[in-house]
Design brief:
With 171 residues, the protein is mainly β. It is 12% helix and 49% strand. It is built from 1 helix and 9 strands, in the order αβββββββββ. The protein has one helix at 5-24; strands spanning 35-43, 52-60, 69-77, 82-89, 92-93, 98-110, 121-132, 138-147, 158-168. A hairpin with a 4-residue loop joins strand 5 (92-93) and strand 6 (98-110). The longest helix is centred in the first third of the chain and has 20 residues, at 5-24. The chain starts with a helix and ends with a strand. The relative contact order is 0.21.
């Protein structure tokens, strides 16, 4: 079961349109500090053909273009797969503590002894829901999809469920 980029974008735009009154009044976006996020997840959670543990480390910048902020990360699995990725994300503050963060990125994938995803270039779309503490740190859960969008020899794709812990950092 693969999720098309079009479907992910349609869900994001639908969600955004429902929140537009809060967005236009400035209630939904707040400026948080940059974050260093660490995650551990379950690779290939849907099909379970080639499961592994997924480890992530990401830097999430707090400045960007309009509502979109850049992030970059690296992922490694227990079966030797590696993924270096850069992308954009946005935070929707759904009240004082709950944050919904959709993100999209592109990067280079090394198969290791993991699944052949059909291309070195892979895209990651993700949705995350997190609880924000008083010190701006967060704990959250995320669901992401890897795909090469049909540009590779095959487009198997895979999904990952991840638990994140994010801490604010200052330079």
């Amino acid at each position: 079961m693969t999720v098309s980029l079009f479907r992910v974008l349609a869900v994001f735009l639908s969600f955004f349109s429902l929140l537009w009154p809060r967005v236009s009044s400035g209630q939904i976006f707040q400026e948080d500090p940059p974050l260093l996020s660490a995650g551990v997840g379950y690779f290939d959670v849907v099909r379970q053909d080639d499961t592994a543990t997924d480890f992530r480390l990401e830097y999430r910048h707090n400045k960007g273009l309009w509502i979109f902020r850049p992030w970059l990360g690296v992922e490694a699995t227990t079966d030797g797969s590696l993924f270096g990725v850069v992308g954009f994300e946005t935070d929707f503050h759904l009240g004082e503590r709950i944050i919904f963060t959709p993100s999209f990125g592109a990067g280079a994938y090394h198969q290791g002894s993991g699944p052949d995803l059909g291309s070195v270039l892979e895209f990651r779309s993700q949705i995350e829901v997190a609880y924000r503490f008083d010190d701006a740190s967060r704990i959250g859960v995320a669901f992401s999809h890897f795909s090469n969008a049909g540009i590779g020899s095959s487009n198997q794709g895979t999904e990952i469920a991840t638990i994140y812990y994010s801490v604010p950092i200052d330079f």
